[in-house]
Specification:
Layout: H1 2-19, E1 22-36, E2 42-57, H2 66-69, E3 74-84, E4 87-99, E5 105-120, E6 123-141, E7 144-154, E8 159-172, E9 178-186, E10 192-202, E11 205-214, E12 219-229, E13 234-245, E14 248-260
Antiparallel strand pairs: 1-2, 1-14, 2-3, 3-4, 4-5, 5-6, 6-7, 7-8, 8-9, 9-10, 10-11, 11-12, 12-13, 13-14
């Protein structure tokens, strides 16, 4: 009887482990390639990490959206290193998200520093720009966030601050599969907007599309992406983009791997 009790306890523990997972950190690495019709092609490499104040419960949510649906407050950091022929472009940033306990309010913000070095006719030039953003949000329904904020930049040549608005909604469809919808806009001088949608074939696999437009940079891009979780910890994501800057068309290709623990 004692052996039977021990065996039952072990099986119960394994069953719980197999259905209830949690993680408190996520780290990732990415690589991208940009191929324009005119000018030099470029490569970019990035690293990022997120630490959640409390373990994120995945429950029965799509794994890619577990932290959002669990309202998981966090701090995060990222760095990107890009080389595009005569231009080197490096960015470092930190951010935070805070879901106010016992309420439906949300606070978010980030700050980053970009250093661009470019060479023209044998001469080297530098431009350092600081970017920052802050927003206040509200979750009027499960899986729905609406946020208002400010987004700005500052360098030796110019500066500006513009209001922002964004929304994110994750819900389950009538067929039992999930969908993620996102939209955002910056008004004023930036005059940019983006939309995105992801369809979850199951809790581990999603396919999606996105679109971005920025009048200030005279840039727009359409993308197709997919993300697959091979288990509760490891995921791989790929994206193909088709864009235009000015009158110069380009294609972009990206891969990102993430690990949760």
């Amino acid at each position: 009887m004692k052996k039977l009790a021990i065996a039952s306890a072990l099986l119960s523990a394994l069953a719980v482990t197999g259905t209830a997972h949690a993680y408190q950190s996520e780290v990732g690495a990415s690589a991208a390639y940009i191929d324009p019709d005119n000018g030099s092609s470029g490569n970019a490499f990035g690293i990022d990490g997120t630490y959640y104040f409390n373990p994120v419960q995945t429950r029965n949510a799509p794994l890619a959206e577990a932290a959002f649906l669990d309202r998981a407050s966090n701090v995060n950091a990222h760095a990107t290193f890009a080389d595009r022929g005569d231009t080197d472009d490096n960015t470092y940033g930190i951010g935070a998200e805070y879901y106010v306990p016992n309420s439906d309010f949300y606070l978010g913000g980030d700050v980053s520093r970009n250093n661009t070095e470019y060479r023209i006719a044998g001469q080297k030039f530098d431009l350092d720009t600081t970017y920052y953003a802050a927003e206040v949000g509200y979750l009027p329904a499960p899986g729905l966030l609406i946020a208002l904020g400010l987004k700005g930049y500052d360098n030796d040549n110019d500066d500006g601050v513009d209001p922002t608005l964004r929304a994110k909604y994750v819900t389950q469809l009538s067929n039992g599969n999930d969908i993620n919808l996102e939209a955002g806009a910056s008004f004023g001088d930036l005059d940019e907007f983006n939309v995105a949608a992801d369809y979850f074939i199951d809790k581990t696999l999603s396919v999606g599309v996105d679109y971005y437009n920025n009048d200030l940079a005279d840039q727009n891009e359409f993308g197709i992406n997919a993300r697959k979780f091979f288990n509760q910890q490891v995921s791989l994501e790929g994206r193909v983009g088709f864009g235009e800057i000015g009158n110069n068309d380009y294609n972009s290709f990206g891969l990102a791997a993430k690990y949760r623990f």
